[in-house]
Amino acid sequence: MAEAMIAGLIENRFADRDEILVSDVSAERLTLVSRAYGIRFTQDNAVVAAHARVCVLAVKPQQIEGVLRELSPVITVDHLMVSIAAGKSTPMLESLLPAGRVVRVMPNLACQVGEGMNAYTRGSRATTEDGALVARLLECCGRALEIPESLFDAVTALSGSGPAFFAYLLDRLVDGAIKEGLPRDQALILAAQTMAGTARLLLEKRMDPVDLAAAVTSAKGTTAAGREILETPVMADILERTIQAAARRSRELGRA
Question: Closest Cα partner for 119 from 133, 108, 129, 109?
Fold first, then answer.
């Protein structure tokens, strides 16, 4: 995820290559990223904080406390800390930082192709200007939307975990097409482009999904026949429980 953000920042000229400094425990990984993007690197997190006023904390949730304790002595009121650690709230992050402003972000995997959905929320010290800056940063690899932190478990379930859910549903549709005679490679292209085009249509035309479905459906036509199978109380319940299960797990991780 951090590499996707680096690529977006450079491609969109949000930052020059020499303005980006990265740190990682893996020297091999740092070397590869540095060569790929022409950026500077170190294995000392404190060095990054000493040289940057905007720090992106792209670490696993179980690592965040250790990283923040390491950084705490060098973080000042001038630092903006942007965390993408899943499940870790702004109060928790702020409790480990006596200074600095915090913005929490929930990105998703599509950032790798510049189509990510990035939700963010400001901590108690973060300003409106901080939020605007983070939004511009996130828009380098997709869309950005400010959402109250109380709704972040739902965000995690829908857009954070959502790529896996959509990919699963797409794969089931592809399987159905294969059984009707299509080769898998062709079925996958047809299905993936149809999904991408549908998403773009909904967003750019600001259509409601219900209206789009109705526009495609003719009485007694092929779409109507398929919807009769798909749109059942059982299927609706399965999809609702999918989001509920992911949101519940997000809450559990936040308490861990």
Answer: 108
Residue with tokens 């300003």: 127
pLDDT at 253: 80
Does one domain contain both 100 and 207?
Answer: no
pTM summary value = 0.91
- Integer Cα distance of 212 and 202 in angstroms: 8
What distance in Å separates the CA atoms of residue 144 and residue 158, rounded to the nearest whole number?
A: 15
**pLDDT tens digits along 184-197:** 999 999 999 999 99
Minimal CA–CA distance to 169: which of 86, 242, 250?
242
Rounded to the nearest 10 degrees, what angle do helices 27-37 and 2-11 cross at? 20
**Same domain (yes/no): 141, 75:** yes
**CATH code: domain of residue 51:** 3.40.50.720
β-strand partners of 200: none
